[in-house]
Amino acid sequence: MAGGQVKCLSVIGFSLICLKMVAATKTAPKIPTIDQAYSKISNSITVEWATVPGATSYLLTARDRNAVIETVVASSPGTVTGLKAATLYQITIRSISPAGRSQASPPKQAKTVLAAPILQVSSPSPDSILVQWETVYMATGFSVSIMRANGLGRIWKENTTNTSLTFTSLDAGTLYTIKAYAWNASGTPGDDSTCNQRTGPRAPANIQVSFDSGSLKAYVSWAPTEGAFNYTVMALSDSSRLSCSTTFSSCTISSLQCGTEYLISVLATNDAGSSRSISAVTLRTVACAPGRVTIQEDPPGHLSVVWSSVHLGDYYVAFVKNDDGLEVHCNTSLTQCNFLSECGFTYFISVFAYNKAGQSPLGDVFNYTTAPCCPGDINPVLVSSDRVEIVWSPVRGAELYETKAVDGFSVVECNDTVPACTLSALECDTKYNITVYSFSEVRGSNTSCTSRFITTAPCSPEIKNVSKDAFSMINVYWRSTNVEATYTVTAQGEKGLHQCSSTGESCTLWGLPCGSVFSVTAVAETPAGRSLPSYSVPLETVPCCPASLTVTQVTQSVINVSWTVGTGAQTYVTALESHTGQSKCHTHQNHCLLGCITCGINYTVALKAISATGLTADCGYQSYSSSSCCPLGVKLYRLVPNGIRIHWQASRGSANYSTDLYGSKGIFTCAPSAGLSFCDITEIPCGDVYTVMVSPVAETGLKLTFCPKKIYSVTCSGSTLGMVIYRGKRNAV
Asked: What is the largest CA-CA distance in the chain?
């Protein structure tokens, strides 16, 4: 310690001042004094005190018989939490600074307020709410208040020493907010509890029931009830229980039973409970349809209808309707009715029971048939060469029809209950005698019915051959067994329909478009009708030639031939021919590159279009002259004073040439006179590198750019051109 002091004294005065300040900060802070300690919440006590200079925080301590709880706070006031309700605590406080803690302050007593009661609420009736709670420790009384949850209306407040309270005269179906707290012997209130409770809905009233006898449904309506979330309508009978639910003021109960008496009530429900209508409405449904119906014809011409009685049936109506639509009925309180009848009719009998609710559901419909009559207005309709459809008007009393077709050697029959018959497996182009007989189980078959003749449609022809001649005409040949018929041949394709007709065994189709596929069929026709089409024969025409063809020179020995697409063509063959040889290309594209072309030669271009099946169209010829050959031996010579001469060796044949020099200081062009193989450029800058290209010029004036290029360096000598030096060759671009 002495050594430290010696060392400190050896430094300047500033260090001595710092030493004094450090020693001063090590003094503990002053003891705070509690101004007041109080509790507003059952698990905490709030403490207020005067601020201690130099204190950075404070330690609050709450002590009871069983526990000590401490809390560090920054400033006054501070709160100690985690305490027990209705408990007396000794409260002390210490100030804290970097130097340490102060001594505890003189204690002050404070007691936590009572705990909040735990509420259980319910709505025993639409206008009341019952509030219940458990006993609160140290409580001597309770205060409970209630008001609408939306804040409207008055507030009811009651004080009690009990643990339950009922609020009455409330509005039904209304949400209320309930608040309760306990107080101690000194009247200090404790924590409060708040909860919401809705009153139950009022019982539905003014119940109206409307019954639909046709669908056996009941439409139930009532006056809306305030606060009801939904409604349940119940229909009770001795044997069933039906219901429907809704949020509206009406509901439909389905699947009611006939001949049944129901008690109908409505239950209104919300989250508080439910209320049933005070009285139930009685509903009597329609009676059930009478059963055990019997029909007798005794004597002939008189029908007697008898049935059994049904529950809730006040009277009965029997309906008798014949198949002409004429209807008669009998109204009686008994269980029997009598009617007049005629032969040749089918009668449909039904019996209904009636009461105040309406007509009973439709029961079984019975029929009674008298002797049948012969069918009239027989109308045979030809369907095809091997079938005939026969139709006629229904006849009175017929339960079954028998149709026979006779051609002298064979008989074809069909039996059916409807006034129509289809005779199948007939011979084509054959005359049949057709008769229709009516039949019933009571009278049997009526054999006095007349017959009618009908001839079937002609037989289908058979296409034997389809040929093409040199003039693009299509000849179609067929074979047929019909006696007399007119034949029509049809070629159907994507580009239209083409036909020809004949009474013989062949005809010719004209004008079929190229590049098309057709389906060829033949049909025979007679006054009796048309035959089925023959089996189709495919027909393909040659592909169409391209509308245009273009030849383009690509390099001195390569040309590109392109053409438009020919309809129906899948591949193409292009050929170039000259006295020097031939070049050919087979491709599925619409262009082709042909090589080994000799420059300066006349060629003939030929094109063939080929379909997927190999049909070929020769599409004519076109002449083409290949470009002139590129010159050889291109050289540059200096001219006095600032000129350049470009010289070359002309290729075979006569050709015009154009010369171009490309340098960094400009582009220079010259064209020689006809027949010359050089040209001069009089003024050209020296000291530059030039790219030189000599190109033949086509007859159209187009300059060909595929000839090779050469590079020359032109030096300067004094004020005039110096040497021309060859630098190399550049491939044509």
From this structure: 158
The verdict on pTM exceeding 0.90 is no
Strand partners, 395: none
Q: What is the DSSP letter of 256?
A: P
How would you label 469-505 residue by residue, b for 16+ Cβ within 10 Å and e otherwise? eeeeebebbbebebeebebbbbbbbeeeebebeeeee
C-alpha span between 540 and 701 (Å, rounded): 46
Residue type, 579: H
| 220, 264 contact by CB (below 8 A) | yes
- In the numeric block, the tokens 């919440």 are attached to 41
Tell me the C-alpha distance between 449 and 182, whole Å. 109
pLDDT above 50 (res 632): yes
Q: What would the two tokens of residue 530 be?
A: 């048309």
Q: How many CA atoms lie within 13 A of 702 on its CB side?
A: 9
The secondary element (H helix, E strand) that includes residue 654 is: none
Joined tokens for residue 264: 């109908």
CA distance 92 to 82: 16
How many CA atoms are closer than 13 Å to the CA of 139, on its beta-carbon side?
A: 27
In whole angstroms, give the CA distance from residue 241 to residue 645.
Answer: 121
Tokens of 465: 């051959």
DSSP structural state of residue 9: H
**Which helix (H) or strand (E) element contains residue 273?**
strand 273-276
pLDDT, tens digit (0-9, with 9 covering 90-100), for 564-597: 999 989 999 999 888 888 889 999 999 999 888 8
**C-alpha to C-alpha distance for 423 and 264, rounded to whole angstroms:** 62
Q: Nearest CA to 529 among 426, 392, 624, 613?
A: 426
Which of 453, 503, 454, 508 minimizes the C-alpha distance to 482? 503
